[in-house]
Amino acid sequence: MPDTESSNSPLLEPLEIGDLKLKNRMVMAPLTRNRAGEGNVPQDLNKLYYSQRSGAGLIITEASQISPYAQGYPATPGIHSAAQVAGWKAITQAVHDKGGLMFIQLWHVGRISHPSMLPDNALPVAPSAIQPKGEAVTYDGMQPFVTPRALDIDEIPGVIADYVKAAENAKAAGFDGIEIHAANGYLLDQFLRDGSNKRTDAYGGSIENRMRLLDEVITAVKAVWPSSRIGVRLSPENQFNDMADSTPQATFTAVVGMLNKHDLGYLHVLEGDMLGAEHKVDYTELRKLFTGFYMANNGYTQATGEQSLNAGNADLIAYGQLFLANPDLVERFKRGSELNEPDQATYYGGDEKGYTDYPSLELEKLSA
Ligand code: PHB
Fold this sequence. Notes:
With about 375 residues, the chain is α/β, with parallel strands linked by helices. It has a single domain, classed as Alpha-Beta Barrel (TIM Barrel). Helices cover about 30% and strands about 15% of the residues. It is built from 13 helices and 14 strands. The protein has helices at about 5, 45-50, 80-95, 155-170, 185-190, 205-210, 210-220, 250-260, 285-290, 300-310, 320-325, 330-335, 360-365; strands at about 15, 20, 25-30, 60-65, 100-105, 125, 135-140, 140-145, 150, 175-180, 230-235, 265-270, 295, 315-320. The strands form 4 sheets. Strands 3-4-5-10-11-12-13-14 form an 8-stranded parallel beta barrel. A two-stranded antiparallel ribbon has the order 1-2. The chain is globular, with a radius of gyration of 20 Å. Residues about 1-5 have low confidence and may be disordered. The protein binds P-hydroxybenzoic acid. P-hydroxybenzoic acid (PHB) binds near residues 32, 63, 73, 183 and 184.
């Protein structure tokens, strides 16, 4: 018997985003898993993984590069070639067949890459030629990040065009929408924050200038998708990938103000720091400022997710590691069942182990 309290959970209430009907408020967060096939093409194994998780109100795919120059890690899927579109199409079909909805996260890593990963050993690009501290994950193991090349202002329209092409490909692949990845120290975030953006042109200096690229990318992809089918992800104070901003609350207050103009489907915020630093940003303030749906992410449990929804601090909760380890997370929350423990050793790369072999309640029942 499901206990009444769990089945009354606000996490299990539906939500309409424009014309999309989410069956619950539990979102599968984007998770890099490095298991794309040859040519960074999504394959059958990835299809099984996502379709197993179709119980989510919305699945956001792992970050997917918008061009060969936008890649930063081995075996991450792309959304720039015809074969990749075909691979994703089989996946969106499988998720739709099980009643799920799916957005693809569009990714340009900027400086978080390495020449060995890029066509013709190109230098990674960034707002400014600042070498991030740390190491790139390459096909030959970990290698120190290099000093990237600052994008010339004349190259920016080409970057925006890559987002548009990827947005078109996402449509052809049958996705329900797109999420623009502007978080976690990748290209768009590198532009937003002043630790990585030292430009002196129209794309650097003031926050109005630093958020110009994100604003232009959103404007451009709105020619492809209705605004309600576009989400944006931010991480105002995540230090991951050697990121910093001198005034995160003010910076992201301005960014949220800019996003409000676009009437987006949702704003997805990684609250706090992936490396464990204390929170400095007041997310309830950002949430109050944002006029659309707010999706919160970073270590939420069932209880804290419910508290956040009940308090009006979020409309949706994105679960990463919990969905990774529990394909039927929604069912488990509904029944108050125990959760599988995630195995960190199998997060990145490999095969079905730690990917598609986490048991669901049905499987446990059958094997009991
Ligand atoms: C990662 O591969 O570590 C990674 C990728 C995308 C993110 C965050 C982390 O947004």
